[in-house]
Amino acid sequence: MNTDRKALWAVRESALPAVVRPCPDCSSSRHRPSGKIRVNASGKLLDVWLLLSCAGCDRTSKVPVHERVHVSSLEPARLVAYENNDPAVVRELAISQSLAAKNGYRLDWTGTWEVETRTPLYALDDPAPFRVLVSFEWPAPVRVERLLMRGLGLSRSGVRRMVGDGRIHLPLALDAKAHRDFELTIHDLGSVDAAKHSKLLGAPSDVRSVLGRVGLHDTSQHVSRSAAGA
Q1: For residue range 67-79, what is the model confidence (pLDDT) as tens digits?
Q2: Alpha helices of the chain — where are they, by DSSP H?
Q3: What is the pTM of this model?
């Protein structure tokens, strides 16, 4: 009996988080990075801001990154990246929890992640435990229940039923928000609806009926699902 069945789920970026803070010009509290960084020099002193756009009125606002710092305190490559609106640096600043805490706003990660399942094709009726390694390639806090819904293609009630029946073993509570790698174990994988399971495994429709009858496994398949929320 195969006792080492594994799958890898990767949580990946689909969008940058929204910055939540009041807009002085409208009732909206949601802002998105504009993709630009402003650098202002006063002699040898620099101010650096991340520029945001209000989702409601498109007003531009500034998030202080550096205030009155000496030019020598910044690495030349970093300063060039600021001046050229380097996308990687904009992304880094946009997801920075320390920058958010420093400037008194919070990040809304809703709709910013997707889960890619990399699952070999195993027989549906194999009773061996199925281990899933969840890897976070994106620091979004993801609710465990929603991750399972997306990864297994099940409804909320279906996930709760499997956890309640002991068919899914978790190191975290269902309502917990995870942002670090963890491992879960699924027992009795064949109890997952066959059509949904074959979709999870990435099998084409004309071979789905075969999956329930064979014991061989094929190359890994890749399926990405956008998450509706964190």
Answers
A1: 999 999 999 999 9
A2: 76-83, 87-94, 97-103, 144-152, 156-164, 194-200, 208-211
A3: 0.72
